[in-house]
From TrEMBL:
Residue ranges of domain TOD1/MUCI70 glycosyltransferase-like in the record: 69-371
Name the UniProt record assigns to this protein: TOD1/MUCI70 glycosyltransferase-like domain-containing protein
One Pfam family from the record: TOD1_MUCI70
Length: 425
C-alpha cells in the first residue's frame, strides 16, 4: 500500500508535509473530530453540515450607498481606449474620499477589451453565489473541487475565466463538454472566455476577473475567488459561513505566509526578480510619501500583505469600491497586487469589514498545484529605468502611472529599512 503523506500545522501557520517514500503525492487528509474540520491536519472551525447553514440577509450599504463607474475617458482621437482608463492623480486622490454617492474608475472602459460571448453573458445573469477562478496564457489547467455538497452544486456557479490561448490549451489537453446552448464545461467548471486581452502583460489580464469579480459578474451577491493553480477542498457554503457570516464581515483574505509589511514584500519581489526593481521602488516611494508606514504589531490589521490567491467577498458597495480602488492601483503601478492591497485598506480606514485569517487555514482550504510552465517577462529582469526605455520594455496599456510625472518631489524619499525575516525574502 502507498503511504499517504501527512501534514502538520505549526504554530507559525506553516504547513509541513512529511515525505512520501513512493515519490507520489496524494490529496491531503480530510477528517472531522468533535465538529471541527481538519484539512491538511490544520483545524478550521467550519460548520458541520452545508445543508444546515442558514444564509443571512445581505449586509445593508451604510457608508457608500450608491456606486457607479466611469466607462468613457477623455482621450486624444488617435489614442485607443484603455481598459483601466486614464485616471489622473487628482481623480485618484478623490476616489479615496468616501461619500454616500461615488463614481470611480473601475476598468471595463468602452471598447477596451475583455469581451465576453453572448452565451456566457446570458448564463451569468442567474449567478448570485459564485466560485470563480481564472487561467491566462495557458499557465494552468482546471482543477476539480472536492467535498462539494449537492446544495452548493445547485446554489453556486463555478466559473472559470480564460483567455483564447488558455481555452485552446485546455481543449487540446482536457475533455471539454459543450451543452445545448453552446456553453463549455470542464467538470463542474463553466468556462467563460474573455476575448481581446486588455493588457500586454498576462499577469495584469489575470487581475481583471480576480479583483473585478463584481464587474464581470454583476448579479453576484457573494463570491469566492481562487487562483487557477488552486484546488478547492471545502464546501463553499461552509467557507462563506466561517469567513463572512459568522463574524459579519464583507471581505476575507488570508495573512501572507512570510511578510507583514508591503516594504518587505517589495524587497522580496525585487530579489526574486518578479518585476522591474526601479518600478517597484517607485511605487513604494509613492506609498511611503503618502503616509503608508511599515507594518507594526500594534496596527489594526494582523498584516498589510495578504495571501492573494483566495478572496472571499460579499458584494456590498464598500467591498466593491475597495476592489475598484485596488484594481486602479494595480492598473497604475505594478501588477504585483499584494503591494497595493494594504495601501488601499490603509486609505479606507475602518470602512471595510475585513477579516484576515491565519495562513494555516488558507493552506487547509485548498491544494496548491504547480503551473504548467513558469511565467517570464523581460521587464522583470530590468535593473534601471533607462534599460526599460531603451529596450522598449514599457507596457503600453498598464502601469502608466509609473511613467506619468507624480505631483510631488520624491527625490528625497528614502524607503524604510527592511528586515528580512524569512527565506522567501
Amino acid at each position: 500500500m502507498f503511504r499517504v503523506r501527512a501534514a502538520l500545522c505549526k504554530n507559525d501557520s506553516k504547513v509541513l508535509y512529511t515525505a512520501d517514500p513512493t515519490g507520489l503525492s496524494s490529496k491531503p487528509l480530510h477528517r472531522k473530530i468533535r465538529g471541527v474540520q481538519f484539512y491538511n491536519g490544520c483545524s478550521i472551525p467550519v460548520a458541520d453540515d452545508p445543508d444546515a447553514v442558514v444564509i443571512p440577509k445581505r449586509t445593508p450599504n451604510a457608508i457608500v450607498k450608491k456606486l457607479s463607474y466611469l466607462t468613457v475617458d477623455k482621450r486624444d482621437k488617435e489614442s485607443p481606449p484603455l481598459f483601466g482608463g486614464r485616471q489622473n492623480w487628482k481623480q485618484r486622490e478623490e476616489s479615496f474620499k468616501l461619500n454616500a454617492t461615488m463614481r470611480v474608475h473601475c476598468g471595463f472602459m468602452k471598447n477596451s477589451g475583455a469581451d465576453m460571448d453572448d452565451v456566457d453573458m446570458e448564463y451569468i445573469q442567474k449567478c448570485k453565489f459564485v466560485v470563480a477562478s481564472g487561467i491566462f496564457d495557458g499557465y494552468d489547467i482546471p482543477h476539480q473541487p472536492s467535498n462539494i455538497s449537492l446544495r452548493s452544486q445547485k446554489l453556486f456557479c463555478f466559473l472559470m475565466v480564460v483567455d483564447d490561448v488558455s481555452l485552446d490549451f485546455i481543449e487540446k489537453n482536457i475533455t471539454v463538454r459543450v451543452d445545448n446552448a453552446g456553453g463549455k464545461w470542464v467538470g463542474i467548471w463553466r468556462l467563460v472566455t474573455l476575448h481581446h486581452p486588455p493588457f500586454d502583460e498576462p499577469r495584469r489580464n489575470g487581475k481583471v476577473p480576480k479583483i473585478l469579480t463584481h464587474r464581470l459578474f454583476p448579479r453576484a451577491w457573494y463570491s469566492i475567488w481562487i487562483d487557477g493553480k488552486m484546488e478547492l477542498m471545502v464546501d463553499p457554503l461552509l467557507i462563506l459561513e466561517r469567513y463572512l457570516w459568522r463574524g459579519k464581515y464583507t471581505f476575507a483574505v488570508a495573512v501572507h505566509k512570510h511578510h507583514r509589511s508591503i516594504y518587505e514584500e517589495g524587497d522580496a519581489i525585487k530579489r526574486r526578480k518578479r518585476y522591474a526593481r526601479p518600478l517597484v521602488d517607485l511605487q513604494m516611494k509613492i506609498y511611503y510619501h503618502e503616509g503608508m508606514e511599515p507594518w507594526e504589531a500594534n496596527k489594526r490589521m494582523p498584516s498589510d500583505v495578504p495571501e492573494g490567491a483566495v478572496l472571499i467577498r460579499e458584494h456590498t458597495t464598500i467591498a466593491d469600491l475597495f476592489s475598484c480602488l485596488w484594481f486602479n492601483e494595480v492598473n497604475l503601478f505594478t501588477p504585483r497586487d499584494q503591494l497595493s492591497f494594504g495601501y488601499v485598506l490603509h486609505r479606507l480606514g475602518d470602512a471595510l469589514k475585513l477579516f484576515m485569517f491565519p495562513n494555516c487555514e488558507y493552506n487547509s482550504l485548498f491544494v496548491l498545484h504547480r503551473h504548467t510552465r513558469e511565467h517570464s517577462s523581460k521587464v522583470e529582469w530590468a535593473k534601471t529605468i533607462d534599460e526599460i526605455v531603451k529596450k522598449g520594455l514599457k507596457e503600453s496599456r498598464g502601469g502608466l502611472g509609473l511613467w506619468t510625472p507624480y505631483p510631488a518631489d520624491l527625490s528625497s524619499v528614502e524607503l524604510p529599512a527592511v528586515k528580512r525575516t524569512s527565506q522567501a525574502s
